[in-house]
Amino acid sequence: MRALPIAAVAVLLLVAPVAGVAGPGVAASDGASPASEPARPAASVPPSGPAQSVDPVSPSTSPSRSVDLASSADSPSTPSQLAPQIETANLTLRTLSTPSGAATRVSTSTRGPDLGSSLGFATADADAAFETAAVVDRIERTETNVERQQQILAEINRVERAEVALYSRQSEAFSSHADGEITDRELLDELVRVAATAKEYDERLDAIDALADATEDFSSPGRLDELQVALQVYEGPVRDRALAIARGQSAPSDIYVASSQGAVVLATVVEDEYVREVFRTGRWDRGGSDISNDAAIEMTEAAYPETAALRQPDAFGAGSVQRITIPHEFGTLQTFVSGGTEQVFVEHQRVGLTAFPDSEPVTASGDGFNVTVERTYPGGPVTVTVLDDETGEPVPDVTVTKSVGGGDSRAIGTTDGAGVVRTLSPAEPYRITVVDEPYVVVLDDIEPLTTPRPVGDE
């Protein structure tokens, strides 16, 4: 990577400053400072209702549906696309995770503004943009039509080789984190850089494609489209959030990270929405055969039958990778399906928290409080609600702490006007404590639910 001149770096600092921001929707949890102890001890109040892991809802089948390849995943759905309503009481929104039985490193840390990371991202972005401009210049400076065609093909080949290196770079980051060699922040920074590089390559191919269209008796080879779809798998909604936080454009947030060899799970809460992305390299056959959009839709419907029953999927892709999107009333599911394995290897989910289906309440009362914890699966959103035990009214400005696996209690925040504060579920039993000195309510030994995995990945 080329170093930028000092003047350019100064300009970048002015363009992308790291600013102070307000408190997050998900307050600091595992990385926050310990909360002060109450004035008097309180005995743990056993939560009502079951506190054991439960099996995911049994899948229901849904009819296969297909769309034209030209249908954009971002286009709005029409009423005719709506599937028959299903019972929301039986709804589950399945999600990928690290492979069952794999040794997995799990942690949750608070990400905040970071001047060093922000400057590094800006420098890398500028460097990549300069390279794209140089590519365009090399093509435009060719003297003959044949030379122009050869240069276009050479630049596409160069991006192909760069994508292979990008895949290796990301896989190494997964393994390094799983082995404990790098921190959560270092992993997220690397994944943000990978995503930004992939996006720049994608935009570079757009520019090359336009130049190919303007070349006499020539058009872009089909592998350009395939390469552009493959580059999109390196992007993700949690990576986008991590980048915005580092630049000071979004409030600090807790980010859940689970990694194993060849897999990573990232999750966070953005305002009133749960955001999750999963990458499973073992499910991507990089030398796999082509897969049609119809086949990819069928694979996604079979793996996520409840989600597919909500609305008809959209498909977009080329070659051995297809992107499937299902926008539905609870959020959005986007998958990338691989030819060869015919499996989903990348998953992006956005789910509204007001109707998050994969949760189960545990409650406790004491010292004038009625506390409900909506427990969910590892990395899922946990909503804590504190009400007045007599009036049922929300109790704002009450401190809530979380202790994982018998560790120290750390503040996750204070309740808002609705008496609510949110955190992310750990992978092991945890304790939630509501503190309004001298009053205390404790919900102990809260078990995370079983992750509702896609069909075939149980």
From TrEMBL:
InterPro entries linked to this entry: DUF7094, DUF7096, Fn3_arc
**Where are the stretches annotated Disordered?**
26-83
Where is each DUF7094 domain found?
A: 255-357
Q: What start and end residues bound the annotated signal peptide? A: none
Q: Which intervals carry biased composition (Low complexity)? A: 26-67
Highest taxon above the source species: Archaea
The residue ranges flagged as biased composition, category Polar residues, are 72-83
Ranges for domain DUF7096: 1-249
Which intervals hold domain Fibronectin-III type-like? 361-442
Any idea what this protein is called?
A: Uncharacterized protein
Which organism is the protein's source?
A: Halorubrum ezzemoulense DSM 17463
